[in-house]
Q: What sequence folds into this?
């Protein structure tokens, strides 16, 4: 596998690969990550971690419960290190002691003795159902100036601070000066068990989830020549005249520019200004993360640094963070399917699987082994009940979709230190091991999976076998934060991102396609012409991305473009590279009230989104789909040289009908070759993961009813395997190990 | 059962009961409804209907499929009668013909021959995935003035008209003059099979679902002395001075008053104005319904008239309609749990069961046998798949919660007449009987239930055995349309309605309570002092309702009041009758950031909503719950004479923790006596339905994982029945018939 070897080498060159491997003094074998896997002692190994908070679990139970996790196949523990517990009074730090609550070092030493790695999570933020999300109360109440505020200057919530406020950074630095040296003492390179150190927690959540970005004037520097916001705009626009042109304003300098309230009116200018503020806000998050990372390095922490995205839908927010922290950093994501009755669904579903898939693929595209830093294990809510059965299905679904490591949140809990817990006195969390050391059914689920993974180290290297690729645009995947619904643009990027997930990708999976994602922002995918690319477009796409698609098409690639063509670049400035290449067709929203859309031979496909007509398709284009009412083209194909072909599909849908998956099949069948996996039941989704002749086929039933289907798969380099008719129990994932010659 | 006999008599007096029974010429036995049940030929019988659209099902298949439904226990069919099909060109009506598409009469005659009743649904609206929701295209395109519009005058959507626009009514009247005599010809009293006639369809949905109430100026009469809106306000306020006082305005007459846009700013005045417009809008819906009903009567339709609420959450919107149409009218509701992937959940859930329960109880309180006029049977979407297993569980859940009749939407379908269907050419709907007459698993589910009901006619009369009552305020149950979240009031009625469902009621069911609802607006519940009443309050409650609670308390009733006391009446004018009776305690929102609430002996109950403190509880009150941080009272009890007692609980939550159900148990245990049903697993909800010594116990597992629990029940007048440990498969409802001495 040349591509893979190349990647490994290039990463090593970038200083990312095999971090910590040079440790000579280590009592515990080195831990590392490459872009494909975790390694322990140089061998690929699944990182199987469990959250185990020393400040909650009674010291007397530490060894016993750690042993239980080892028995379950665990090789790592994670713990928050709550600032509020260790600095209860400003400037007075408390560590050690007999009760265990403050004995971080004792915990780390015990983990080492038990042969378990440790992920240290010193904050500053913790969340973890602690008061002020884990910040000290004195910090939040004595220093109101560091609170994050909305655009009107109103505090967002108690315990939501402005990350880059100088006073907050000063206090956080003092906390880090205490805790980071303690972490540094026990890293793997120094013979300790600490393998990873996490900076902060679910960044940006503390603002976005509670209704607003941060507009703290001191942090953002509104009105100041050298303020962050004016400086950011200056770096973007260079000259105030250019900004005035793009904003339709007449500012005399950058310091005078003020952000506008969300949501705006949907004009091009409003969307541009809101995108600017949103990206600026993310740049401050990146700056904050890089600041913390710098301190950690200065204070001697030589483990990889990690961060956990606040959920599958937030992964794309951290691009700037990843760039600013640089080598030695690894992003993962937290994957919960339910935490209380207001969540959309009580149990895992195909919709939550789509979200997890997008998250894991985005992480892979960023160059990380896809890792779930918080994998639900119990819940802060007793109701809806987090059942062992649903959890098992969720774990297997994540594994099927690419997960290479996880940390169960939580493996076991205990009493909250007095005056710190937001929920209950006992933080039991319905964890696999209860507060009285009781072993719950969820433990057996985690043990079964842990031992299964131990028996199959090759799975850590396995990748999904794919027969088509979805082009993933990180810019689009965060656009719904500032731009969705109707606007002056033909098609907003937020709506395109919804269509990507609920339309094209869902229909693709129902049509038995095996998709992998490829990164619009990278050249990696352009060379490979063997599988077609599905490019969901909004009115905006980076100039470089448009150029890549053109290059791909010119050199023999096949691309499905839907439902519009971009007319603006990533900064929302006019840019029609892709459209120009396709002879600048005029694409208009279909004005028909009741269109009748027939595409690629599939008659009357339900339009439950929108359709776009091309009155005059490009010269030489072949019309393949029309609105039968108006007769206008909806789908056309253009040969682009060297065997290349573009199909434009002016159609956006929410997957609902058999016709939608039949349309996907019809559109792609001439390009995709024999499907990797064929499932006769569109409700049974599959994933075939292979590595060096080994294969594991996953079949997922994420419904509350049993499902049946005929399953056939075609692992690379092997004969097709026909599994025949299979029945799956409600909410279950089955797998077939095709490595051992079980089927031939 | 004196209460029941009394009710029947009083209803007969009101002309509601046994409608149609006097029919002498009938070939088919009379059908009637009382407030407790349906009757066929004078005997209680479940109304088991299936949607069977003659314009879709090929005529050649009518008899065969009707027979299949009869075999399944069916006794009735329903059909839309689409205006757009029968008046394709304005003024040209098409009926009859060989193909069946236009042969309404042929269909009715065939049903009669097969011994099946018919529910006729002539619109004007149909929805049913038809173009323009079943209205003729010419009507919607040639007469733009009758479109419903938002407050800015923008049309809401194609096919959304203003119900009471004179031109729309003129056209609708012409349609009714054609179709109503045809219906009248075949009513049961005249020897035909038509037992019920539906007016319009899911009223108000066509506006509310698409983003706005109707503000059509012609319909509403803005600016006109005798316009509907000015007249409505005049009837409410009498004098413009009074309105100005309540609105803080200085209008010179009612014609000058304009509605304000939703949502407002949350001031008392804004909420009052929005409530006024919302209630006014509902009055126009009621007027429209009454107009249609009047025409139907004039044109000879002597069946009961019915209407289907657009969903469980809309039932309370139709109070005005019920009043205006008057005797001989019956409201039911449509109960779907999923129709496409954007619905909150793919399958039935405890949350959807709560919604169904509220709907069925509201219908019962309105004086109707709770009926589901559209019970999901298949789906307009192939995905998420509407499985037979989930449907079975949903049907049983509705039966457990009080359903006395239903119409499956749909039993069987077929091709849409050309140019009429919005979704697919073939309206298969994944129905129990496919378009090729294939029998699907869902048919067996419906047949099993149909035969089960036939064997147990007593079940039609059974009511839930209850051990506590929830006071239901229709005004509150529709308030979230105009008043929710933070406002100048202490606690909005929309939030109170959410707390009712997601907090108090959910915790009650998890605590093994068996609740029934009682109607705040009625005197019926005041006499019965045997079970306690839970009264969820907002800042607004009708004066009469407040008086009823006071009367109940004075005469020995026990009431739990939460989380505030009303300070305004139903018209949002100051009114503190209830508070005054409780010695006018000052109740304030708890300012503590991290309160620690202990209630009725349950320590540290999670506050995930809000809490309210009483700094000085009434003289003689006993404090039973406090915020331990501030020491202020959260819960106190006051004896009210004659054994009466009020507990005030200043606490609002979303059910999440074991502590929430333990709190409900602790609060009510001293009042409720032995529980009707005890389930040891809070995730297994139950309902015990009894009548004259017969009992059926339902146990519901609405989760995707199996559940176990110990179940014990206490049917009235019998020994307790201990069912021991029971296991329920995922997404299943079990029942035990305790009538036959299976258990003793």
A:
């Amino acid at each position: 596998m040349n591509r893979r070897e190349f990647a490994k080498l290039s990463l090593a060159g970038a200083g990312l690969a095999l971090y910590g491997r040079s440790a000579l003094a280590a009592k515990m074998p080195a831990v590392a990550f490459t872009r494909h896997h975790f390694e322990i002692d140089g061998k690929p190994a699944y990182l199987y971690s469990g959250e185990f908070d020393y400040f909650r679990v009674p010291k007397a139970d530490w060894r016993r419960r750690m042993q239980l996790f080892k028995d379950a196949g665990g090789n790592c523990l994670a713990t928050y290190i709550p600032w509020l517990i260790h600095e209860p009074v400003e400037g007075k730090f408390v560590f050690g002691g007999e009760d265990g609550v403050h004995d971080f070092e004792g915990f780390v030493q015990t983990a080492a003795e038990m042969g378990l790695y440790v992920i240290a999570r010193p904050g500053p933020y913790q969340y973890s159902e602690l008061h002020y999300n884990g910040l000290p109360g004195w910090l939040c109440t004595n220093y109101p100036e560091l609170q994050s505020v909305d655009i009107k200057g109103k505090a967002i919530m108690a315990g939501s601070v402005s990350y880059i406020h100088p006073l907050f950074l000063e206090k956080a630095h003092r906390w880090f000066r205490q805790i980071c040296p303690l972490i540094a003492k026990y890293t793997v390179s120094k013979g300790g068990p600490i393998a990873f150190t996490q900076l902060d927690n679910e960044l940006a959540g503390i603002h976005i989830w509670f209704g607003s970005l941060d507009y703290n004037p001191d942090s953002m520097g509104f009105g100041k020549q050298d303020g962050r916001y004016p400086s950011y705009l200056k770096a973007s626009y260079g000259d105030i005249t250019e900004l005035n042109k793009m904003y339709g304003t007449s500012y005399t300098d950058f310091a005078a520019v003020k952000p506008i309230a969300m949501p705006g009116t949907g004009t091009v200018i409003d969307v541009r200004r809101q995108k600017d503020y949103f990206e600026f806000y993310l740049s401050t998050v990146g700056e904050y993360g890089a600041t913390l990372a710098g301190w950690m390095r200065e204070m001697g922490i030589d483990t990889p640094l990690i961060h956990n995205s606040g959920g599958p839908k937030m992964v794309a927010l951290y691009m700037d963070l990843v760039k600013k922290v640089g080598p030695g950093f690894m992003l993962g994501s937290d994957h919960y399917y339910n935490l209380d009755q207001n969540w959309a669904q009580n149990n895992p579903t195909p919709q939550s699987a789509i979200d997890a898939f997008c998250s894991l693929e985005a992480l892979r595209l960023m160059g990380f082994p896809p890792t779930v830093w918080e994998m639900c294990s119990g819940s802060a809510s007793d109701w809806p009940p987090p059942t062992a059965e649903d959890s098992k299905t969720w774990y297997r679904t994540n594994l099927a979709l690419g997960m290479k490591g996880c940390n169960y949140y939580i493996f076991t809990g205990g009493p909250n230190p007095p005056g710190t817990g937001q929920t209950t006195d006992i933080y039991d969390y319905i964890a696999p091991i209860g507060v009285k050391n009781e072993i719950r059914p969820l433990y057996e689920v985690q043990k079964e999976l842990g031992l299964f993974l131990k028996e199959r180290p090759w799975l850590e290297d396995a990748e999904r076998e794919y027969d088509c690729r979805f082009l993933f645009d990180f810019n689009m995947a965060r656009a719904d934060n500032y731009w969705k619904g109707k606007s002056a643009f033909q098609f907003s990027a937020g709506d395109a991102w919804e269509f990507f997930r609920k339309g094209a990708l869902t229909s693709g999976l129902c049509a038995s396609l095996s998709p992998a994602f490829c990164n619009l922002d990278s050249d990696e995918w352009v060379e490979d012409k063997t599988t077609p690319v599905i490019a969901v477009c909004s009115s905006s796409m980076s100039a470089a991305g448009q150029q890549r698609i053109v290059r791909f098409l010119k050199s023999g690639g096949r691309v499905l473009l839907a439902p519009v063509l971009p007319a603006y670049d990533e900064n929302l400035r006019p840019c029609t590279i892709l459209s120009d290449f396709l002879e600048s067709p005029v694409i208009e929203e279909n004005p028909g009230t009741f269109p009748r859309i027939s595409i690629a031979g599939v008659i009357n496909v339900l339009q439950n989104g929108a359709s776009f007509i091309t009155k005059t398709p490009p010269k030489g284009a072949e019309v393949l789909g029309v609105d039968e009412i108006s007769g206008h083209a909806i789908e056309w194909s253009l040969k682009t040289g060297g065997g290349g072909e573009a199909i434009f599909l002016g159609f956006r849908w929410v997957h609902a009908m058999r016709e939608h998956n039949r349309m996907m099949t019809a559109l792609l069948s001439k390009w995709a070759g024999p499907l990797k996996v064929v499932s006769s039941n569109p409700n049974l989704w599959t994933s075939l993961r292979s590595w060096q002749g080994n294969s594991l086929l996953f079949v997922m039933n994420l419904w509350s009813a049993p499902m049946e289907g005929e399953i056939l798969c075609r692992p690379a380099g092997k004969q097709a395997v026909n599994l025949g008719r299979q029945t799956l129990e409600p909410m279950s994932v089955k797998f077939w190990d095709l490595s051992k010659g079980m089927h031939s």
